Amino acid sequence: MKPKVFITNPIPSEAEELISRYCDYEIWEKDEEIPKEVLLQKVADAEGLLTPKGKITREFLQHTPKLKIVSNIAVGYDTFDLKEMEEKGVLGTHTPFVLDDTVADLAFGLIVSVARRIPELDQYVKVGKWIENSDTLFGTDVHHASLGIIGMGRIGEKIARRALGFDMNVLYYNRSRRRDLEEKLNIKYCEFTNLLKESDFVLLMVPLTNETYHLMGEEQFQLMKPSAYFINCSRGETVDEASLIAALRQGSIRGAGLDVFEVEPVDKNNPLLTMENVITVPHIGSATKKTRHAMALKAAENLVAGVTGKIPPNIVPELRHLIQ
Ligand code: GLV
Ligand code: GLV
């Protein structure tokens, strides 16, 4: 008998095909999110779960006596309660590598868009307000500006590579110093507070953990230059959003480009949505067809390995010891 698995969202056909070869599977195909009671009923006898954002909590795991693996279709796994998964011996996997360049492209898109005010000026043109040669259209140069990247992981590195092409001066802060990259990419390690003080663009690319929760708050925004921009492509909870809103209102920073929010979907009354100097996108860092397909396929491979007694290729580092 094939192992039983549950999939919480529609997935591309190649991923589904792979799973169908090895597993007895069911997919929640509806557009709306699966209701919690239905999910708990579906996973009661499942050995594997494939999901892009399912919260794996202590309570959830009390309903999944047979569960061996949760395969996340995302690189971030802040939705996992790692301690509980470890205790129950449930493996967790994610989808690193395949999305790095795609997220870095978006990060750069946000930098250029906010600095050159592309969405705002797009609206000018579309409502017939064409004005040439006016200083009201002026933006800020990206080339030769300093970019401070907080979090020099795989995606941070890809962003730094792009910054080289723009002749930017790249500073970075990371938990562990990346001497291997310093010469190769001409980037400079900087203490966190110095990075905030010196950068024209501060870009956050850290995973959400207890240490990075509200990493950016009132004090940190105050340290930034009033002419600087803040870009977040990581997780909304790494920023104390009330402090970001206050900083933008007071002019302690010039603008922001945001792919993520403290609460998602973002509340339509969130003041960030009505600020001209803030650019927003709905958590789409990895959202190209090619990359999302690659992520789904990788997640399917992890899932199949986890329920067929093989070692999944992308177990999250904190749970790797479970298979040793
Ligand atoms: C997206 O945010 C991801 O973690 O893959
Ligand atoms: C994510 O994959 C990172 O290491 O930045």
TrEMBL record:
Q: Which residues form the D-isomer specific 2-hydroxyacid dehydrogenase NAD-binding domain?
A: 108-285
Does the entry feature the keyword Ligase, yes or no?
no
Q: What's in the GO CC field?
A: cytosol
Which CDD domains does the protein's record reference? GDH
Q: Extract the Gene3D superfamilies matched here.
A: NAD(P)-binding Rossmann-like Domain (3.40.50.720)
Q: Which family does the similarity line name? A: Belongs to the D-isomer specific 2-hydroxyacid dehydrogenase family.
Its recorded name reads D-glycerate dehydrogenase
